[in-house]
Design a protein that fits this description.
119 residues; mainly beta; 7-stranded mixed beta sheet; 4-stranded antiparallel beta sheet; 54% strand
Length: 119
């Protein structure tokens, strides 16, 4: 079983930065992709960014392109989300997730961490 532990949320003013971390533990960890999701007040959960664990490909939601950067440290089994130029509309509960099988839904989820951006 894989456990994902998220840290790094908080309150920040608009224009500020935060970095989220997602540490994986458990059985040998080698997912197909990992991603960051968020769910804002009254909104559906959306995929913010994802990466392929083996390789360098990344993808971002249009709303965060140029502001957020997803990265990983394979030696630490940890994924990061660097969030710069934060906007009030980025306020949400952020989750990390791992997908073990191509073409299947994300099957491992971390707990959410709240990111609140004040105007």
């Amino acid at each position: 079983q894989v456990q994902l532990v998220v840290s790094g949320g908080g309150l920040v003013q608009a224009g500020g930065s935060l970095r989220l971390s997602c540490a994986a533990s458990g059985r040998t960890f080698s997912p197909y992709t990992m991603g960051w999701f968020r769910q804002g007040p009254g909104k559906e959960r959306e995929l913010v960014a994802q990466l392929f664990w083996s390789g360098s490909s990344t993808a971002y939601a249009d709303s965060v392109k140029g502001r957020f950067t997803i990265s990983r440290d394979n030696t630490k089994n940890t994924m990061y989300l660097q969030m710069n130029g934060l906007k009030p509309e980025d306020t949400a509960l952020y989750y990390c997730a791992a997908r073990s099988t191509p073409g299947r839904p994300y099957d491992y989820w971390g707990q959410g961490t709240q990111v609140t951006v004040s105007s």
